[in-house]
Amino acid sequence: MLNVNKKLWSFIIGLLMTVAFVWLVSVANSMPVPSFLASTPATLTAYYSELVTILLSIAFTFMTIVLMRQLFDLCPSDHPFWLFLPVCVFVLGLFVANHVLLFTLLYAAVPAILLLSVRYWTQRFKQRKIFS
């Protein structure tokens, strides 16, 4: 366990997640459609990279939550503002600057935000600190 300010680590992990979204989208777009799915309707093959992006984002976020707990003794419910801030600023920046990349990166960002939010609320309900 590294003894550093937990807000700083939450912010750094949020930054790493933001960078990872771009990487996850590029990895998912570079994956070819498997041959057994090529014979299925065109709608499945058209959305294959988006589905892979969503699954990779969920797996990456789950792994990030586990590593946050193991390495830094940090839970997403400790400082959620500093964890979500880089992700939200990045999505807002894409909304203002580049609409084409926005929807592609939202396939990675939204599942991660939802998973972190579910983790936040379950931890708050367990601690009975709902409105603090």
Automatic annotation (TrEMBL):
It comes from the Bacteria. The chain crosses the membrane at residues 7-26, 46-68, 80-97, 103-122. Keywords: Membrane, Transmembrane, Transmembrane helix. This is Uncharacterized protein. It comes from Thalassotalea eurytherma.
